[in-house]
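tool=predict chain=A
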Amino acid sequence: MFNFDRLAAIGKAAYLPVVLVIIWAFVTESRWVPAYVLPSPSTVLATLVDFIFGGSEQSFSGTFVKHFLQSLYRVAGGFACGTLLGVPLGIVLGYNRGIGAFIEPTIELSRAVPGICWLPLALVWFGIGTGTSVFLIALGSFYSIFLSTLGGVRYVNPVLLRAGRSLGATESSLLYTVILPAAFPSILSGLRLGLSYSWIYMVLGEFTGVNYGLGALLLQSRDTMDTPLIISLMAVIGTLGVISDRIMLLFMTKILGMDVR
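tool=predict ok
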């Protein structure tokens, strides 16, 4: 059955991008700015199609799949590391404030350090390559996952805890029967946010000199002043981030039956 509400939502979401593209086309066609500073939408679209499907003699022509798979591999590895560290640590520190008093201040201090400041140290530790990229992605996703898990576990509704205790649950069994189920939406929201940060830190990690990857190609296009390719790659990375977020949202709503909006 045709869904008019969904169509209306899509139309509202597309309104601003369409207006911006029209303004962009008007500015470039009027030659108010040089083409190397801001190419026209048609030039960017042609570059994007060439990057994905090929057809020209450019070095990047038809190389989307190769670069995408390398970036996806690094994002998946870094996000998995951030999840495997952030979720258990958030549960432990959220459940036990005594342990958290020793560890949380250090985590808060390290969280205040900008991600780019970790780059030189990561290069020393892991060298140029995938190791540094995965480390930075894991770092970027860890904090949001950890904080969401911590908050979800620590600030469970006291009424639920009292109800569990009144039904005979011990303090240890409360974690599994009450706290974790109540904190589950917060944990999954943190995973969703951590996944978005993974794509952001992927670009930073691939600026370290790797040969393949969307971030690596973005750096190469900067060196060659290929502005159409730069904008095309920005669009591709943004689209991949949205798609991965939609997949995570679909997992929450369809598979787990959660109402996440």
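The chain is about 80% helix and 0% strand. The CA atoms of residues 249 and 261 lie 8 Å apart.
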